[in-house]
Amino acid sequence: MLATHSFFCLSLFRFLSLLTNTVVQTYNTGRPVWSCCWCLDDPNYVYAGLSNGAILVYDTRDTSTYVHELTSLGSRCPVVSLSYLPRAASAAFPYGGLIAGTLEGGCFWEMKGGISYRPHHLPLEPGGCTDIQVDASSRHCLVTYRPGKSSPNLRCVLMELNRVVQQDSLDDPACTCYPIQTFNAGSCCKLLTKNALFESPAKDGSMLVCAGDEASNSAMVWDAGSGTLLQKLQADQPVLDICPMEINQTHFLAALTEKMVKVYKWE
After folding, report:
1. Is 224:208 a contact under the CB 8 Å cutoff?
2. Which one, 25, 212, 225, 267, has least CB within 10 Å?
3. How crowded is residue 58: how many other Cβ atoms within 10 Å of its Cβ?
């Protein structure tokens, strides 16, 4: 089992073995790596988002260099988040591909096959985007915005992905999204926290949103459908990353801070 880890200062992209805790492959990206993720439709591919807005596609079977580069159209902002949405039998949004978030907005790179991708710019608010996460089952994404002129608070906006068939056109449908719910947190946001959108452990079909709140040093949990704040999980320090997980049919939520990992059990 392999895990990815990026080193910002050295411009290196490394694969680590969780079994032996050793580096098994290293790539020199030439620029600092800000984000990374695996391809969930083909485990041979992995993506690295760079400081200049480009995304490098690596094939783990090729140890020399990247096999493809996805170049942002008109933006050189760092790619702060990468999430892969696998293909699914969904009438509303069956496509698989890569959702990339930058400080200026977001783009869905539809995977057309192999290493061929088609970009779809998502209609997000201009500026202030710090993170985009996706949920494969609901085909929704969670976009996080810093406090700014439009809102004094950190906002997590739940977006529904869909496709728009263009009339009188032979072109493939365009991929887009629209907001369906907004969640507000505190007025402080200096970090690029990775938030989470996931199915409720209650298995009742509902979705949960969890986001780090720097103002209260906590992780806030909302019901995605109603927008109701369910709980504030105290972390004592700003939360950097959030990961829901299931172990032996028991559900946990891990919150990473600068000094420790806090693990909360679902009851």
Report:
1. yes
2. 267
3. 24
The residues, ordered by sequence, that sit 6+ positions from 205 with a Cβ below 8 Å of its Cβ are 199
Distances (CA, A) of 132 to 16, 140, 156, 191: 25, 10, 9, 14
CB atoms closer than 10 angstroms to residue 202: 10
Strands 129-135 and 116-122: unpaired
Q: Alpha-carbon distance 140 to 178, whole Å?
A: 10
Burial class (CB in 10 A: 0-12, 13-18, 19+), 233: middle
DSSP label at 86? -
pLDDT in tens, 154-208: 999 999 999 988 776 667 889 999 999 999 999 999 999 999 999 999 989 899 9
How long, in residues, is the chain?
267
Closest CA to 5 of 28, 23, 20: 23
CB 49 within 8 A of CB 106: no
- Within 13 Å, how many C-alpha atoms sit on residue 9's CB side? 0
